[in-house]
Amino acid sequence: MPTAMITGASRGLGAAIATALADSHTLFLAGRPSAALDAVAGQFGATTWPIDLADVSGIEAVVEPIVGLDVLVHNAGAAFPARVAESTVDEWRATMEVNVIGAVALTLALLPALRAAHGHVVFVNSGAGINASPGLASYSASKAALRSFADSLRNDEPSLRVTSVHPGRIATEMQEGLVAYEGGSYDPSRFLSPQSVARVVADAVHSPPDAHVHEVIVRPRK
Protein backbone atom coordinates (compact mmCIF):
# COMPACT_ATOMS: atom_id res chain seq x y z
CA MET A 1 0.00 0.00 0.00
CA PRO A 2 1.37 3.49 -0.80
CA THR A 3 2.39 5.74 2.07
CA ALA A 4 1.17 9.23 2.98
CA MET A 5 2.52 11.63 5.58
CA ILE A 6 0.09 14.27 6.87
CA THR A 7 1.10 17.17 9.08
CA GLY A 8 -1.28 18.71 11.57
CA ALA A 9 -3.40 15.56 11.69
CA SER A 10 -4.47 15.68 15.33
CA ARG A 11 -7.77 17.46 14.65
CA GLY A 12 -9.86 19.42 12.16
CA LEU A 13 -8.85 19.25 8.53
CA GLY A 14 -5.77 17.12 9.18
CA ALA A 15 -7.81 14.41 10.87
CA ALA A 16 -10.34 14.58 8.03
CA ILE A 17 -7.57 14.13 5.45
CA ALA A 18 -6.31 11.12 7.41
CA THR A 19 -9.80 9.65 7.28
CA ALA A 20 -10.07 10.31 3.54
CA LEU A 21 -6.77 8.59 2.77
CA ALA A 22 -6.86 5.78 5.35
CA ASP A 23 -8.38 3.18 3.01
CA SER A 24 -5.83 3.72 0.27
CA HIS A 25 -2.60 4.63 2.09
CA THR A 26 -0.46 3.65 5.04
CA LEU A 27 -0.53 6.79 7.14
CA PHE A 28 2.36 8.62 8.79
CA LEU A 29 0.91 11.32 11.05
CA ALA A 30 3.39 14.09 11.81
CA GLY A 31 3.11 16.66 14.56
CA ARG A 32 3.92 17.58 18.09
CA PRO A 33 3.33 14.57 20.37
CA SER A 34 -0.14 14.72 21.90
CA ALA A 35 -2.98 12.52 23.07
CA ALA A 36 -5.10 13.87 20.21
CA LEU A 37 -2.55 12.81 17.59
CA ASP A 38 -2.23 9.40 19.21
CA ALA A 39 -6.02 9.03 19.13
CA VAL A 40 -6.22 9.72 15.40
CA ALA A 41 -3.34 7.33 14.76
CA GLY A 42 -5.09 4.66 16.81
CA GLN A 43 -8.16 4.83 14.60
CA PHE A 44 -6.19 3.84 11.52
CA GLY A 45 -3.25 1.86 12.85
CA ALA A 46 -1.04 4.75 11.76
CA THR A 47 2.41 5.66 13.04
CA THR A 48 3.17 9.06 14.55
CA TRP A 49 6.26 11.11 13.78
CA PRO A 50 7.31 13.70 16.39
CA ILE A 51 7.86 16.78 14.24
CA ASP A 52 7.66 20.38 15.40
CA LEU A 53 7.57 22.65 12.36
CA ALA A 54 8.45 25.62 14.56
CA ASP A 55 11.77 23.96 15.41
CA VAL A 56 13.28 22.55 12.25
CA SER A 57 16.55 21.42 13.81
CA GLY A 58 15.35 17.89 14.52
CA ILE A 59 13.28 17.22 11.40
CA GLU A 60 15.97 15.55 9.30
CA ALA A 61 16.86 13.04 12.01
CA VAL A 62 13.21 12.13 12.63
CA VAL A 63 12.40 11.34 8.99
CA GLU A 64 15.76 9.74 8.15
CA PRO A 65 14.30 6.16 8.30
CA ILE A 66 11.82 6.95 5.51
CA VAL A 67 13.35 5.74 2.23
CA GLY A 68 10.24 6.04 0.07
CA LEU A 69 7.18 8.28 0.44
CA ASP A 70 4.30 8.43 -2.02
CA VAL A 71 2.41 11.42 -0.65
CA LEU A 72 3.29 14.33 1.60
CA VAL A 73 0.38 16.53 2.70
CA HIS A 74 1.38 19.84 4.25
CA ASN A 75 -1.65 20.69 6.36
CA ALA A 76 -0.24 22.13 9.59
CA GLY A 77 -0.45 25.90 9.89
CA ALA A 78 -0.47 28.85 12.26
CA ALA A 79 -2.48 32.07 12.12
CA PHE A 80 -2.50 35.22 14.22
CA PRO A 81 -5.52 37.34 13.25
CA ALA A 82 -4.35 40.94 12.96
CA ARG A 83 -4.28 43.79 10.51
CA VAL A 84 -0.86 45.11 9.59
CA ALA A 85 -0.77 47.89 12.19
CA GLU A 86 -1.92 45.49 14.92
CA SER A 87 0.57 42.75 14.09
CA THR A 88 3.91 42.17 15.75
CA VAL A 89 7.24 41.01 14.42
CA ASP A 90 7.08 37.99 16.71
CA GLU A 91 3.74 36.98 15.16
CA TRP A 92 5.15 37.35 11.67
CA ARG A 93 8.18 35.27 12.62
CA ALA A 94 6.08 32.51 14.21
CA THR A 95 3.73 32.38 11.23
CA MET A 96 6.53 32.16 8.70
CA GLU A 97 8.42 29.55 10.74
CA VAL A 98 5.49 27.13 10.75
CA ASN A 99 3.72 27.91 7.47
CA VAL A 100 6.77 28.37 5.26
CA ILE A 101 10.13 27.45 6.82
CA GLY A 102 8.78 24.33 8.49
CA ALA A 103 7.12 23.16 5.28
CA VAL A 104 10.31 23.82 3.31
CA ALA A 105 12.47 21.99 5.87
CA LEU A 106 10.23 18.93 5.93
CA THR A 107 10.04 18.82 2.14
CA LEU A 108 13.82 19.05 1.78
CA ALA A 109 14.35 16.32 4.37
CA LEU A 110 11.92 14.02 2.56
CA LEU A 111 12.96 14.90 -0.99
CA PRO A 112 15.06 11.75 -1.53
CA ALA A 113 12.16 9.57 -0.35
CA LEU A 114 9.69 11.46 -2.54
CA ARG A 115 11.97 11.21 -5.57
CA ALA A 116 12.38 7.47 -5.02
CA ALA A 117 8.59 7.02 -5.11
CA HIS A 118 7.92 9.62 -7.83
CA GLY A 119 5.74 11.07 -5.14
CA HIS A 120 3.09 13.74 -4.74
CA VAL A 121 3.35 16.81 -2.49
CA VAL A 122 0.09 18.51 -1.55
CA PHE A 123 0.11 21.94 0.06
CA VAL A 124 -3.06 22.89 1.91
CA ASN A 125 -2.90 26.58 1.16
CA SER A 126 -5.75 29.10 1.44
CA GLY A 127 -7.72 31.60 -0.53
CA ALA A 128 -5.52 34.07 1.34
CA GLY A 129 -2.57 32.70 -0.60
CA ILE A 130 -4.12 34.18 -3.77
CA ASN A 131 -5.87 37.29 -2.43
CA ALA A 132 -4.81 38.71 0.93
CA SER A 133 -7.56 38.50 3.55
CA PRO A 134 -8.34 41.52 5.75
CA GLY A 135 -7.23 40.91 9.31
CA LEU A 136 -4.82 38.13 8.33
CA ALA A 137 -1.72 40.04 7.30
CA SER A 138 1.03 37.64 8.32
CA TYR A 139 -1.04 34.56 7.44
CA SER A 140 -1.81 35.85 3.94
CA ALA A 141 1.85 36.66 3.30
CA SER A 142 2.93 33.21 4.48
CA LYS A 143 0.43 31.46 2.23
CA ALA A 144 1.52 33.52 -0.77
CA ALA A 145 5.09 32.44 -0.04
CA LEU A 146 3.97 28.82 0.32
CA ARG A 147 2.26 28.99 -3.06
CA SER A 148 5.49 30.23 -4.64
CA PHE A 149 7.46 27.45 -2.97
CA ALA A 150 5.02 24.89 -4.38
CA ASP A 151 5.43 26.40 -7.86
CA SER A 152 9.23 26.28 -7.53
CA LEU A 153 9.15 22.68 -6.32
CA ARG A 154 6.97 21.73 -9.29
CA ASN A 155 9.36 23.44 -11.71
CA ASP A 156 12.54 22.05 -10.15
CA GLU A 157 11.43 18.47 -9.44
CA PRO A 158 9.77 17.12 -12.61
CA SER A 159 9.53 13.60 -11.20
CA LEU A 160 7.10 14.82 -8.53
CA ARG A 161 3.49 15.91 -8.68
CA VAL A 162 2.88 19.11 -6.69
CA THR A 163 -0.58 20.42 -5.89
CA SER A 164 -1.67 23.57 -4.06
CA VAL A 165 -5.20 23.42 -2.63
CA HIS A 166 -6.75 26.82 -1.90
CA PRO A 167 -9.91 26.37 0.18
CA GLY A 168 -12.12 29.16 1.39
CA ARG A 169 -12.96 29.44 5.04
CA ILE A 170 -13.28 26.06 6.79
CA ALA A 171 -15.26 25.19 9.92
CA THR A 172 -12.31 24.61 12.29
CA GLU A 173 -11.00 25.89 15.60
CA MET A 174 -8.83 28.37 13.68
CA GLN A 175 -11.96 29.73 12.04
CA GLU A 176 -13.65 30.17 15.41
CA GLY A 177 -10.74 32.33 16.50
CA LEU A 178 -10.94 34.44 13.35
CA VAL A 179 -14.68 34.97 13.71
CA ALA A 180 -14.17 36.00 17.33
CA TYR A 181 -11.50 38.50 16.20
CA GLU A 182 -13.98 39.89 13.66
CA GLY A 183 -16.61 40.25 16.39
CA GLY A 184 -19.01 37.87 14.70
CA SER A 185 -21.00 34.84 15.76
CA TYR A 186 -19.52 31.51 14.73
CA ASP A 187 -21.86 29.42 12.57
CA PRO A 188 -20.06 26.40 11.07
CA SER A 189 -22.75 25.99 8.41
CA ARG A 190 -21.45 29.16 6.73
CA PHE A 191 -18.10 27.53 6.01
CA LEU A 192 -16.67 24.54 4.18
CA SER A 193 -16.64 21.37 6.25
CA PRO A 194 -13.25 19.75 6.88
CA GLN A 195 -14.60 16.59 5.27
CA SER A 196 -15.40 18.41 2.02
CA VAL A 197 -11.91 19.90 1.76
CA ALA A 198 -10.37 16.53 2.68
CA ARG A 199 -12.30 14.98 -0.22
CA VAL A 200 -10.80 17.57 -2.58
CA VAL A 201 -7.31 16.71 -1.29
CA ALA A 202 -7.97 12.98 -1.68
CA ASP A 203 -9.30 13.50 -5.23
CA ALA A 204 -6.05 15.25 -6.18
CA VAL A 205 -4.01 12.44 -4.63
CA HIS A 206 -6.08 9.82 -6.45
CA SER A 207 -5.89 11.51 -9.85
CA PRO A 208 -4.61 9.17 -12.60
CA PRO A 209 -0.82 8.84 -12.91
CA ASP A 210 -0.76 10.78 -16.18
CA ALA A 211 -2.65 13.71 -14.63
CA HIS A 212 -0.91 16.48 -12.71
CA VAL A 213 -3.27 18.73 -10.76
CA HIS A 214 -1.33 21.94 -10.18
CA GLU A 215 -3.89 23.99 -8.26
CA VAL A 216 -7.39 23.58 -6.85
CA ILE A 217 -9.60 26.43 -5.64
CA VAL A 218 -12.67 25.52 -3.60
CA ARG A 219 -15.15 27.86 -1.93
CA PRO A 220 -18.29 27.46 0.19
CA ARG A 221 -21.48 27.47 -1.88
CA LYS A 222 -23.24 29.82 0.54
Automatic annotation (TrEMBL):
GO terms for cellular component: membrane. SMART domains: PKS_KR. Signal peptide: none annotated. Pfam families: adh_short. It comes from the Bacteria. SUPFAM superfamilies: NAD(P)-binding Rossmann-fold domains. GO terms for molecular function: oxidoreductase activity. Keywords: Oxidoreductase. Residues 2-173 form the Ketoreductase domain. Belongs to the short-chain dehydrogenases/reductases (SDR) family. This is Short chain dehydrogenase. It comes from Mycolicibacterium celeriflavum.
